[in-house]
Amino acid sequence: MLILPKYHAIDCVIFNAGNSVYLDMRMQKRATIHDIAKLLNITSGTVSRALHNDTRVKALTKKKVLDAAKKLNYKPNTNASNLRTGDSKIIGVIVPQMDINFFSNVIVGIEEVASKNNYNLIICQSNDLYEKEKASVETLIKQNVACIILSLAGGTENTEHLVEAVKHNIPLIQFDRTDENLLTDRVVNEIDNIVMDMMQHLFDQGYRDIAYMAGPQNIDIFKKRRTAFEKSLEKLGLPYDAKKIISYDLSRASAKKAAEKLLTRKKRPDAIFASSDFGALGAWEVSKEMGLRVPEELGICGFSNEFYTEITKPSITTVNQFSKEMGQAASRIFFESLHRGAFEKPQTVVITPELIIRESTTRLPKKANH
Amino acid sequence: MLILPKYHAIDCVIFNAGNSVYLDMRMQKRATIHDIAKLLNITSGTVSRALHNDTRVKALTKKKVLDAAKKLNYKPNTNASNLRTGDSKIIGVIVPQMDINFFSNVIVGIEEVASKNNYNLIICQSNDLYEKEKASVETLIKQNVACIILSLAGGTENTEHLVEAVKHNIPLIQFDRTDENLLTDRVVNEIDNIVMDMMQHLFDQGYRDIAYMAGPQNIDIFKKRRTAFEKSLEKLGLPYDAKKIISYDLSRASAKKAAEKLLTRKKRPDAIFASSDFGALGAWEVSKEMGLRVPEELGICGFSNEFYTEITKPSITTVNQFSKEMGQAASRIFFESLHRGAFEKPQTVVITPELIIRESTTRLPKKANH
DNA sequence: ATGAAAGCGCTAACAC
DNA sequence: GTGTTAGCGCTTTCAT
Asked: Of all nucleotides in the shown strands, which has a C1' nearest the CA of A30?
């Protein structure tokens, strides 16, 4: 069954181009190694070896084969070689959404390393839905991908579908939003210290009444950030107040609503630490609407260094997660294990994030260099 | 040869998890239809038919096959069926960069339609380099993808590599940055009217000395936008002045430099129309630095409706290109032709963009509703 | 240095 | 309704 979207409700013109050579360009049939073999009166085995630059093949034969391949416009059929060798040279990637900066950057990192190793990427979106993630894993298993690199969907309830992949000998590499109960390779950010550093920074800037916008608690990374926040309160000797911790679902709308709730309390916090940049953006928007001066009356900071945090006035303090590097590391784990030729105990690569202090939390004059 | 990036220069910790069941979970061998057949004492042909819900197979047999498949944890091997049928159910996508909002949105649109039709995406980045684009096309041909959807790299000099794909019976669908000499299906935005509309808007707001930031002229879409700009000057009875048209390479740095050049001229323009949002952002940044009041002293508008144009103060007037819809339309073209089962004359889908008027160009009070 | 041949897992035409 | 069989294009072992 064919499923198609309607064209968008906006105006839309479709027209046909004039007579074209489009059809005429098409070949009858793709050349195979057999065609090359026939042309040269040798066997396809030799052709295959020649194309793989096997040392046993005579230089002259190699040259002839290469020439014939060019002449016949031969392209190897990866499906056939995959079937034969059981190796697809494809990495499957599953992310919640690829139009989120963080994820597209990770993908760029994965792709960079993959393409250098002549691997391709099949990219799936889970849209944060368990069912879609499950379907994606299924597809990738069928495609016989060499490995799956993924960040868990917010809605993922259990990880049986991932175990399934491992059962089919497909190594799994989790990044960022991971399930710790699933012992696989993983790439994550260090959390406790960076949250503490951010809190120390807020403290140093004189903020004492710090509210927290917590992400979805079923995603372990957001749970961890929240726990780290609570621990840091203690370390700084600040009181814990459940009312100062508010949840939101990472969307912009929900972020705004959450920020509004915090900022309209009778005892307004003097700073908001959001577990994502959308959270910080929401706080920033509400502060504008309320006419609050940032950073004087309200400090704001987020997490991820999304592009817009640099653009806002005042610019927003945040955390650089080194997303591209996370992708590179994930790819690297795979290619290293491939190189070793054996599974090993799962590795965890912990990437230390970096504080990016901007205007939204800088209300004291800089200390002189010492 | 194995090529790996170093971990990022930042701190990095790697450790092994405790003893895991990771290894033990792996299966000996993936089940095939033959395994199912053996188990049930039938032939693999029947199994294949049963799995495809062929009407000729007895209901009981179907049930048995399905049960056995589940029991053996059978997953079809797409490589094998692709090889047999010559149909990969994969769409190849090539974009300059996937971490640009516009492109990741298009990809989301493509993916949406593709996944509904049980097709997967292999996504390649050209990084605006001709060589990388060429290599990507090569890979996609080898993968025997069902079609290639692409937006040309800035650096693409000729389109022989694309003709190559068509020669291998792989339909090509161009979007946004297209080559008109290559007669393929395409999805583009309407340009002349939207540029004229923007110019009319600027004119209505009293801007008379409008400068233009032109993108790379080897990309036809940027050439067209520029031509449309020049035509609209004429229509509005404004003088053409070559000094008011400046080129930049779409990067943020180059945008800033270009804007600086325009705004430090002795006769400063009263508006800047940039051919991309990065251009507009550059102008916006320079205006801030120079203390120019926007929109009073300088009008700024861009193209693409990147997220940050909404965030800046003042927010930036721009053009909604309906990127996601472009992706959907591209996918749709493919599936429609697939459904028809034949090539036809190349189609062009023209999507009408939408003016998004924001603060950066609104200096007159709104007219009352009539 | 090359040929011969088997087979990866699946589909589909043909036979009964 | 099911079995038989050939073969998609490639790799690779075993001969020679």
From this structure: D9
Beta bridge partners of A43: none
Interface test with B, best of A120, A122, A134 (most B CBs within 10 A): A120
- Its pTM stands at 0.86
The CA-to-CA distance between both ends of chain B, in Å, stands at 71
The CATH number of the domain covering residues in B86-188+323-351:
3.40.50.2300
Q: Which two tokens stand for residue B129?
A: 């380099």
**CA-CA distance, B272 to B279, in Å (whole number)?**
9
**Tell me: the pLDDT tens digits for A95-124?**
998 888 899 999 999 999 998 888 988 988
A198 sits in the region (left: phi over 0; alpha: psi -120 to 50; else beta) called alpha
Q: Domain B192-321+356-361: give its CATH architecture.
A: 3-Layer(aba) Sandwich (3.40)
DSSP for A118-156, please give it: T-EEEEEE-TT-HHHHHHHHHHHHHTT-SEEEE---TT-
Strand D positions within 7 A of protein Cβ atoms: 1-5, 7-13
Sequence ranges of chain A with CATH classification 3.40.50.2300: 86-188+323-351, 192-321+356-361
Q: What is the mean pLDDT of chain A?
A: 89
The C-alpha atoms of residue A89 and residue A91 are separated, in whole angstroms, by: 7
Are residues B345 and A107, on separate chains, in Cβ contact within 8 Å? no
Please tell me whether residue A370 adopts helix, strand or coil conformation.
coil
What CA–CA distance (Å, rounded) separates A95 from A97? 5
Q: Which residues contact A40 (CB under 8 A, 6 or more apart)?
A: A47, A61, A64, A65, A68
- Look up the CATH number of domain B12-76: 1.10.260.40
Compute how many other C-beta atoms are within 10 angstroms of the C-beta atom of residue A6: 9
- Say if B97 is an interface residue toward chain A (CB within 8 Å): yes
Whose CA is closest to B211, among B185, B176, B245?
A: B245
- pLDDT of B14 over the 90 cut: no
CB of residue B54 closer than 7 A to nucleic acid strand C? no
Percent of the residues in chain B that have a pLDDT greater than 70, as a whole number: 90
Q: Provide the sign of the torsion angle of the four alpha carbons A129, A182, A227, A102, taken in this order.
A: negative
Gap from A79 CA to C3 C1', Å: 25
- Which of A2, A15, A20 shows the shortest C-beta gap to B117? A2
pLDDT over 90, % of chain A? 72
CA-closest candidate to residue B274, choices B210, B212, B346: B212
Encode pLDDT of B266-275 as tens digits. 999 999 999 9
For A46-87, write each residue's pLDDT tens digit.
Answer: 999 999 999 999 999 999 999 999 999 999 999 999 999 998
Instruction: Evaluate the omega torsion of the peptide bond into residue B76 and state whether it is cis, within 30 degrees of 0.
Output: no
Return the beta strands (E) in chain A as ranges: 12-16, 90-95, 120-125, 147-150, 172-175, 185-189, 210-214, 245-247, 271-274, 299-301, 318-320, 347-351, 354-356
Question: Using CA atoms in the order A326, A328, A333, A335, what is the torsion angle rounded to 10 degrees?
Answer: 160
pLDDT per residue as tens digits for the range A285-326: 999 999 999 999 999 999 999 999 999 999 999 999 999 999
Domain(s) of CATH 1.10.260.40: residues in chain B: 12-76
Whether residue B12 and residue A352 make contact (CB cut-off 8 A), yes or no, is yes
Residue given tokens 């459904």 in the structure block: B339
